Amino acid sequence: MSRSFLLWSIVVIIVVLLRTAPAASADCPSGYDPLRFYFNLSVIQAGVDPAQCTSVGQVIQPTSSCTAECSAHTCSASDIINATRFNQCATQAFIDTSTFLGQRLCIVRTPGVTHDHVGSITAEPLFRDLILIAVPSTTVFGGNYSRGTVSNINFVASVVTAALAGSDGQCYRTMYGYALHFAIHALGFDRTQLSKWRHPSNPNLEYAAYDSTTYPYGPVKPWNSESTSIMLPPSTTNLFNASLVDGDHRVVLITPNVLAAARSHFGCSTLTGIQLEELGPSEMHWERRVMNYELMTTEFNMAPSSLVSSITLAALVDTGWYVLSTNANYGAEPYAWGKGWGCNFVIQECSEATWRHAFCNATFGVAHDRSYVSRCGNTLLYDFYQEPVYQHFSNLTLGGWDPYADYCPYAGNLSVVESCTRARVDDNVGTSFSNITGINTLAVYTTILNQTANTLANRDVFLNEPRCMQFLCLNTSHMLFRAGNAFYGCQGQYPALSELTFQPTTHAATNNGQLSPTAIPAYGFYGQIQCPNVSYSCASGSTLAGLDSTTFPTLVSIQPMNASIAGNVTLAVTWSVGLSVNTAVTCKGLLLGGQQTNSSTWEIGGSTVKSSLYFQFER
Ligand SMILES: [Zn+2]
Question: Which fold has domain 191-347?
Answer without folding.
Answer: Leishmanolysin; domain 2 (3.90.132)
